[in-house]
Amino acid sequence: MKRAVWVVAGVVAIAAVIAWLAGRERKETLVLDLAAELPNTVRNLPRLDAFSVKDITIAGVTRRAIVVDESSRLAWHLTVPENAWLKLGIGVREDAWTAPGRDVGFRITIYDEPLLSLTLDPYKVERDRHWQDFLIDLSEYAGESIDLYLKTDQGDRPAWSNPVIVTR
Predict the structure, then answer these.
(1) Which of 9, 25, 30, 130 lies at a C-alpha separation of 20 to 30 Å from 65?
(2) Quick one: pLDDT at residue 64?
(3) In a 10 Å sphere around its CB, with 0-12 CB exposed, 13-18 middle and 19+ buried, how is residue 119 labelled?
């Protein structure tokens, strides 16, 4: 009987350690703030002065964001560190929610390799009326020099909130 109690206690202790390890928050280190590095993009369409960084409120949540009023493409050249992630949000500014045909396609690529492709249509789709947050694993590119693209097409009023490269 005592042996069974020790086995159960051991299993419970191991389960508790595993739960603690799985549940603890991973520490993030900021590597690159893409909004702060906007002037240092290597490619930009339509032109760099069409972009700005400002506070944008969507569904009551205000964030610092890169904004442009037309189809666009931005690229940053960077060397990807170990354990790197792209962390950002996307959204369509509220003043574009009131008219049909203003959906916005968002794409994130490394060169032409897609990492994310999503269209938001807040006029028709209520769940598109807030920030959509993403954490994209870049670890397969560790040590490589790449061009990271943030692209929008169609519609208008896109916003890229707090785009950063972090390590975890």
Answers:
(1) 25
(2) 98
(3) middle
What is the pLDDT, as a whole number, of residue 23?
A: 58
Q: Cα–Cα–Cα angle for 69, 61, 22, nearest 5°?
A: 115
d(CA 167, CA 27): 8
* pLDDT tens for each residue of 5-55: 666 666 666 766 666 666 556 699 999 999 999 999 999 999 999 999 999
- Domains by residue range for the chain, with CATH: 26-167 (2.60.120.260)
Tokens of residue 103, six digits = 């959906």
With CA atoms as reference, report the closest residue to 153 among 105, 93, 86, 118: 105
**Above pLDDT 70, what percent of the chain?**
86
pTM greater than 0.85 (yes/no): no
Which residues, in sequence order, are CB contacts of 52 under 8 Å at separation 6+?
66, 67, 68
Q: Tell me the β-bridge partners of 65.
A: 54, 161
Q: Tell me the sheet residues that pair with 134.
A: 88
